[in-house]
Amino acid sequence: MIPTWAQIGYLVAAVCFIVALKALSSPKTARAGNGLGAAGAVLAVVITFVAYKPDHLAPILIALLVGTVVGVVGSRRVQMTQMPQLVALFNGVGGGAAALVALLELSEVSADQTVSAIATAFTILVGAISFSGSIVTFAKLQELMTTRPVTFPGLPVLFVAGLLGGIALAVWLVSDPRVWVGVLLCLVGLAIGVMLVLPVGGADVPIVISLLNAFTGLTVAAGGYVLHNSLLLVAGTLVGAAGTLLTKLMADAMGRSVFNILFGAVRGGSTLG
Amino acid sequence: MTESIALLTIFVLAAFVGVEVISKVSATLHTPLMSGANAIHGVILVGAIIVTGQAESTWVMIVGLLAIVLATVNMVGGFVVTDRMLEMFRGPGSRKKELHK
């Protein structure tokens, strides 16, 4: 159990995130809101180091440094027009990180902790979907591949088969939490993510990024449940809920429905290229 | 079981808060808001540090360190790129000043 002061510190960080989202919704306060969010994140990381006293401190700090350098350099160098794909990439690596954390937690979860096992399976599957889906959206926006919707006969069948396979593996994992089943679930999630985004046209991609962003939020929330960490639970749920609403608002602004954006090309209807 | 219920309560309340706080967002801020929310879920970094800090085998540590790198890129890059986007939202006055520098 972590000390009370750390839990209160996590609560302060969670409030920073809530106020940050609120401030980001208005042009006057948006930039300050983003700064407050960053301050909350730094606070959360510092608390984690002091409260959990992690082993392997040197490699952890080096990994933090590497991630910081990559993040800062990447976002400073990018052209203004390339920002959406950078956000997609950042979202993808976040989802990937959540899936990896859940895979590592598998060895701690026993079969009688059903809810934790469900949350772990959810994080692995949806984190992997978010990762590969975001990579494909990145490739589309960066024009590493065609921006037109990509479909082929049998894609809907393959997609549904992937979903059913993913659910079956998740159920298996819940009843018998083994690492190799988790790895298999992760691979199926990666395939589902690719199939989800391939049929989406270039103009609709920002809305899909927003949806995958909400997915990653939910995986972080589930990860917080498994780790009994209230901050991850609050922050992840906030992003999951806000991201879902934002996805709908963005689709409304374009006069489209989220369902049509995702599956319009597959159903043979028109979709913006 | 009581802790599970407490966590479930937090989850449900946070979901309502998440919807409520952004419900009045102006359309010009859709992309920066998405980017800011994206940076916030980078706090999975906290989970990655906890798991790596308890690692007892080499492969757990390697995968954990990879998760730390990815989560840090998400968090740090997310906040920096959001800040750059929002630079464009400054009033016309401040932009003019910059041109005359």
UniProtKB/TrEMBL annotation, chain B:
Bilayer topology: Multi-pass membrane protein
Known catalytic reactions: NAD(+) + NADPH + H(+)(in) = NADH + NADP(+) + H(+)(out)
Cell location: Cell inner membrane
Transmembrane regions: 6-23, 35-53, 59-81
InterPro entries, sorted: NADP_transhyd_a_C
GO MF annotations in UniProt: NADP binding; proton-translocating NAD(P)+ transhydrogenase activity
Name of the protein: proton-translocating NAD(P)(+) transhydrogenase
